[in-house]
Amino acid sequence: MAFCAKCGGTLVEGAGFCGSCGAPAGAAQAATGGTQVIAMNGSVANSGLAPNLAGALAYVLGLITGVVFLVLEPYKHDRFVRFHAMQSILFCVAAIAFSILWHILVSIMMSICCTWVVSFVVLVTSDAAPNRSN
Q1: How many angstroms separate the Cα of 15 from the Cα of each of 10, 12, 25, 60, 124?
Q2: Domain containing residue 21
Q3: Please, which residues bridge with residue 125 across strands?
Q4: Is 8 contained in some domain?
Q5: Mean pLDDT value across the chain
């Protein structure tokens, strides 16, 4: 059984390309002579965190961890981690903007509602009050 030199996925016998990443399989098999080779991604071997774990951790504290993973050296070159860090930042900014707009809308609606209630109470009490004109 052969493995892809680029992603480490299992290669099907006689396949021209890797089923996982699409890399040419002939070059990997010719270079290894048909032996089993498992290639590790450079960022995984050097950093200690797998890219999927780093991508998941980018969402933990939202804006803070998103910026941290965009700045840290082993992760800022990994496309997968960068995508999730940017998505975490943009989601956090969108959630903050939505929260601000929601609070503005609710306060406007409450002021309108309170105005109607006060108007109604004044109208009802003025009609219910006895007319003391002599």
Answers
A1: 11, 5, 7, 40, 85
A2: 1-39
A3: none
A4: yes
A5: 79
pLDDT in tens, 30-50: 444 544 444 444 444 455 688
What is the secondary structure of 3-55 as a DSSP string? E-TTT-PEEPTT-SB-TTT--BHHHHHHHHTT----PPPHHHHHHSS-HHHHH
**What is the pairing mode between strands 10-11 and 2-3?**
antiparallel
Angle at 104 between CA 118 and CA 67, to 5 degrees: 160
Rounded CA-CA distance 116/124 in Å is 12
pTM of the model: 0.52
Structural domain contains residue 22: yes
Count Cβ atoms below 10 Å from residue 102 Cβ, excluding itself: 10
In a domain, 29, yes or no: yes
Describe the crossing of helices 63-71 and 79-128 by its angle, rounded to 10 degrees. Answer: 160
* pLDDT in the model for residue 28: 46
